[in-house]
Amino acid sequence: MKYSTRVKDEEGYPAMALVNKASGEALKHSLLTRYNPDTLDESVLWTESRGVGAGYRCIRMVNNIYLNFDALHGDKDHGGVRDGTTLILWEWTEGDNQRWKIVA
Question: Matching InterPro entries, A to Z (predicted)?
Answer without folding.
Answer: Ricin_B-like_lectin_EULS3-like, Ricin_B-like_lectins
